[in-house]
Amino acid sequence: MNLFEHIGRYFIMLKSVFSRPEKFKVFWSMFFTEINAIVISSIPLVAFLSIFMGGVISLQTAANMESPLLPDYTIGYITRSSTILEFSPTIISLILAGKVGSNIASEIGTMRVTEQIDALEIMGVNSIGFLMLPKILAMTFFLPFVTIISMVLGLIGGWIAGVQSGLYSTETYLVGIRYAWYSEQGNLFYSLGKTVVFGFLITSIASYYGYYTKGGSLEVGRSSTKAVVAASVAILLANYVITQIVLV
Amino acid sequence: MIIVDNISKSFGDTQILFDVSATFTEGQVNLIIGASGQGKSVLTKCIVGLHEVDQGAVLYDGRDFSAMNRKERIEVRKEIGMLFQGSALFDSLTVEENVIFPLKMFTDMSHEEMRERANFCLNRVNIINKNDLYPAETSGGMQKRIAIARAIAMNPKYLFCDEPNSGLDPKTSIVIDNLIKEITYEYNITTVVITHDMNSVMEIGDHIIFINQGKKWWQGDNKEIIKTDNQEVVDFVYASEFMRNLREKLINS
Questions:
Q1: Alpha carbon distance A157, A114 (integer Å)
Q2: Is the distance from CB of A131 to CB of A111 less than 8 angstroms?
Q3: Predicted ipTM?
Q4: Which of B71, B93, B105, B134 to mutate to test the interface with A (most CBs of A within 10 A)?
Q5: Smallest CA–CA distance from A23 into chain B, residue
Q6: Bridge partners of B29?
Q7: Which of B244, B206, B220, B236 is nearest to B38 (CA)?
Q8: What is the distance between the alpha carbons of residues A40 and B224, in angstroms, rounded to a whole number?
Q9: What are the beta bridge partners of residue B3?
Q10: Residues with Cβ < 8 Å from A5, sequence gap 6 or more?
Q11: Which helix (H) or strand (E) holds A118?
């Protein structure tokens, strides 16, 4: 299949994803299960990465500030901007494309090759909507919350790294964090808006590759890899397009 | 009753089924037999709608399934139970949850009623006190029986079994065969079984169709298959020396 056929089939699939669930009680139960399985379970990894990345961003900024004309609070300002604009929304989404995307593609792919999806279809269940909608909605609505956690922890990481290294004081860092906040707080909404799109892309693309797996365990592995690659590419493209539209 | 009326199916340039017609009667175990790669599974998937037919029709008690839209098909599918070759139990659900699943999706039963029904179906297939196990914690034979319990949970009018004995020892195969036969007679179900297992052919084949090169080559029952002079059927069913000797003895007696 060529790229255009994949895109066409992906959009046809989306039509089935957003059809009415057979039973809302079952849907809600699956929705909350997915929030736990793909969102809450990702928080420890996101927290770990965010603290260390926030620390590294501030240390690298401090290490590269050679001009004595630049005030120290610039480190806090740059850490805030980097974390809010790119690290927390985009890099964390790319990491989750690997973690969550491969998980979804292999889960649905295994269901496909072991005929569990056929079993759903035979029962009269819309297998696409049943399997994908809870995952897509869970990730789309809750990735922004994970991103907020990542932002906060990234800034805390920057504070811990700089203060314990003696590069700047808490007060200086906080001045940088607060600097021009009122004029730039729109960046926060831009970033959170991006994660809604990224969450949708990660789960829908991974579900697509899992659902259309053909063959056996080897193909499940391949689908999982393809899902991560395609979701990562889609995130980067969407990031560029959204940035161009919103910020430029 | 299921009527398959002149169905054909191709994948790309490769035609798999050629004008296959068959009638599967209720209260009978209908077998589809044939060598690997001859179109048995494709035929079954066409009958249940997992593949669209290129030509012809499938009628469920007079209802033209192949002409129905998705919504209408869902209504028919609620009357279908299917036992898959690999059982196709949901890994993430326990034994009881697997059997409850169709009830949860399509009935308004209370949780207690669903549990009661699930226990009844599990008891019917002799699965006792295994409700909380996951499919991976059960044997192949048990998985088949759990899958049968799930298939009959909704009181189906039609039961499809795709190679129910594959990967099972002869003793467990007989248990599964007997279970399929008993359930078919007990609930007057139209049962269609795809099998390679000659023991099943002889034991439960009330009506048998032999598929060869994508065509219906022969049909009859488990008595007629012993006496048939159709060379392809003889070559397939009596492939081993032992089976040929057995056939001769049966004919002579």
A1: 45
A2: yes
A3: 0.87
A4: B105
A5: B105
A6: B191
A7: B236
A8: 62
A9: B23, B59
A10: none
A11: helix A116-123
Q: How many residues does chain A have?
A: 248
Q: pLDDT tens digits, residue range A148-188?
A: 999 999 999 999 999 999 888 999 999 999 998 888 889 99
Q: Is B50 on the interface with A (CB under 8 A)?
A: yes
In whole angstroms, what separates CA A109 from the centre of its chain? 21
Rounded to an integer, what distance in angstroms lies between the CA atom of residue A42 and that of residue A217? 25
How much is the pTM?
A: 0.88
**Is A15 an interface residue toward B (CB < 8 Å)?**
no
Amino acid residing at A5:
E
Closest to B105 in 3D by CA, of A33, A13, A27, A134 = A27
Which one of A123, A128, A130, A131 would you mutate to disrupt binding with B, by most B Cβ within 10 Å of its Cβ?
Answer: A123
* Amino acid code (one letter) for B199: N
Instruction: Tell me which chain B residue has its CA closest to the CA of residue A115.
Output: B88
Residue A141 parent element (H or E): helix A127-165
The answer to whether A210 touches A104, Cβ cutoff 8 Å, is yes
As a residue count, chain B comes to: 253
